[in-house]
User: What shape does this take?
Amino acid sequence: MMADLDRQSLRGFLAQLEEELPEELLRITEPVRTHLDITSLVYELERLGKSPAVIFDNIEGHSMPVVTNIAGNRKVLALALGVAPRDLPTAFRERCTRYTPVELVNRPDWQAITIEGGDVDLTKFPIPLHFDIDAAPYITAGQLTARDPETGIDTTGFHRLMLKGRNRLGVSLHSRRRMWEFHRRAAAKGQNLPAAVPDVRGVGVDHRPHVVQGMDAERDEFTGYASFRSTQNVFVAKRIRMRSDAMFHSVVSGMSQDHILVSCITREGEILNALRRNPPNVNAVHVPHTTCGAFMAFISMKKTSEGEPQQAIMATLRTEFYTKYVIVVDEDVDVFSLSDVMWAVATRVRAEKDIIFIPGAKGAILDPTSDPNDFTLTKMGIDATKPLGQDFAARLTISDAQRARARAILAKAGFC
Assistant: This one.
């Protein structure tokens, strides 16, 4: 088994994946283009029901390989955390409360090569163009880090960076969170905001506060739609540092699992944390990536009194404002199975009493159904649990032991 420290690097994790889950690592040696090929190949894998991490060794016009989809399925993420896939939300919830100090080294491997000044040329990196609608190639795995010019406190976040030239990247700060505020504070002082993109190992860079005309760009989003986001903030790269055998890490864009599965798990953990403080007997929470990793949440609970599902609905919507539809089911329903949840809705819901609406609620900016002026919408909760205190039709089930026997018979027949 690989030492914990070795697992923390990209190469260490890929080596662990190859050793322990080789079926979840795909190496492609055929030549591929940065223009659309990388993203479309991962989407084709998803259509086949597969989502392995992928290494592209042969990128046309580039010597650097590309690795992508390393967060593309729960088995892979569970391996990274050393837990079972169904324990991911709980593990996230618990580990967010524990802070582990980083280990400092004198000369990390990524300082092997330094490129500065006029030699900086971002076009030499195999930065993918993900969809035809994208205005330019995007760095998607770059974590932008900067320091508050007033307090000195650091922040780090994912901000997709649009390639605009040899040393320029367009940055969208439309979400108006910490990085936007740091930038605003620097601009108020008439200063640039120094920032770095750890993925490209850049240090000593300027994040310009000025506006460049004609920089609104159409781009793909986690919703599966295109949107216009301002990339008027310009990141000017002054220095690049990297390993001698560098790999370019890219996150598949749009509605790919690589893009939104981590968000699903973090939302599951946050919702689970809130529900465990309120309604009793909550078993599991699932935020499906097929519902954009945000807009729907399924809650499984052992109902002990009427009204508890409604309590869970309200607690969920209060916890995660991106979520707009919540479905609560009984403990016999598998929230990780969309067909099982929909079966519960179809057979246990009486619409006139089990569906509730919350009009005028705050929604996500990128939700295409939200009001374009104030981003509000109507949210909905569905109680798909059986009523208490009365006989209800018994569900047909097959025991785990009988299922195992059936699988063994099928295996001997060469079917699976």
